[in-house]
Amino acid sequence: MLLFFVASCASALPPNFSTKEIKFVSEGVSLSGTIFTPNNVQAAVVIVHGSGQEKRMIDFATTLANNGIAVLTYDKRGVGESAGVYAGPEVGTNNVDFSNLNLLSLDASAAVNTLSKYLQNNKIPIGLIGGSQAGWIIPLAAEKNKKVKFMTIFSGALITVKEQLRFQFYTNGNKNFWDTHSEEEARKHVFNDPDKYEFIDTNPNDVLSKLSIPGIWIFGGKDIQVPVKLSIEYLDILKSKGKHYEYRLFPNLGHNTAFSDDEEPMKDAINWMKNIDKLKNHK
User: Fold this and answer.
1) From CA 233, how far away is CA 137, in angstroms rounded?
2) In what order do the strands lie in the sheet with 69-74?
3) What stretch of H or E contains 29?
4) Of 106, 184, 196, 223, which one's alpha carbon is 20 to 30 angstroms from that of 121?
5) Which pTM was predicted?
6) Which residue, among 33, 35, 54, has the nearest Cα to 44 in the 3D structure?
7) What are the pLDDT digits (tens) for 138-158?
8) Is residue 23 domain-resident?
9) Is residue 72 part of a domain?
10) 88: nearest Cα among 138, 131, 53
11) What is the pLDDT of residues 18-42, one digit of tens each?
12) What are 165-217's pLDDT values in tens digits?
């Protein structure tokens, strides 16, 4: 049974986990976070942020911890109690430039090392979980850190950053986009539109083709920020080359698959992570 955190009932339900406030250093910067340790740890994850000024994700971590998954969630650099400089679109920076995505992946890798030290059982598999922009950051972090044993990605693009931006500018926030546009039209814009911004691009497939750890992607069929069918095609190519990558598609959901009213995406992700040791390619 999947347990979700409900604020109004929190006082009535004793938590199945303990928490500890921590600090760790990444690239010379002190980052602040919280470690959630379930009474019965079955897997462990570091939550990787999407874009925006994101603090530690307490509700998300609580859901995971109540289901036996240890968590380290932290304030993004330059946000909340974390030091450093925040790079984001709100302050006019190219937060999707490779240099920033790579820096954030170093933060995630440092968080993995920190969580590893706090786990009493060194056989507990540690992974990375996150959504949206984290879909580019997580593979970069996994490539850097051999302690990372799996990846759980909600609505992460398997196309380059520039291609994703072309798609996002084309859909222009229209929730009914797929009612009036075809897959062929969308792909034409993804591959041919001029770029509005110049920055060093990132292709997640370059890294994903090198990794040997398992991963799962969870998509919403009505996503207007990530071209899902195209991303799944790239996943299928990687799978055909022996990569242990899986995906779940929820046709009626949009980009926010992790926190939608539908509990099934999170339930699938949690069940998959709790059974990670059974995957043949797990190392």
Assistant:
1) 20
2) 17-26, 29-38, 69-74, 43-48, 126-131, 148-154, 215-220, 245-250
3) strand 29-38
4) 106
5) 0.92
6) 35
7) 999 999 999 999 999 999 999
8) yes
9) yes
10) 53
11) 999 999 999 999 999 999 999 999 9
12) 999 999 999 999 999 999 999 999 999 999 998 999 999 999 999 999 999 99
CA 8/CA 19 separation, integer angstroms = 19
Query: What distance in Å separates the CA atoms of residue 47 and residue 15, rounded to the nearest whole number?
Result: 20
* Domains: count for the chain: 1
List the structure tokens of 195. Answer: 């770029």
In angstroms, rounded to a whole number, what is the distance separating the alpha carbons of residues 6 and 63?
Answer: 9
The residue segments making up the domain with residue 89 are: 14-157+211-223+247-276
Dihedral sign of CA atoms 52, 231, 177, 129 in order? negative
CATH code of the domain containing 65: 3.40.50.1820
- Provide the token pair at 171: 């859909």
- 33: tokens are 């976070």
1 lies in some domain: no
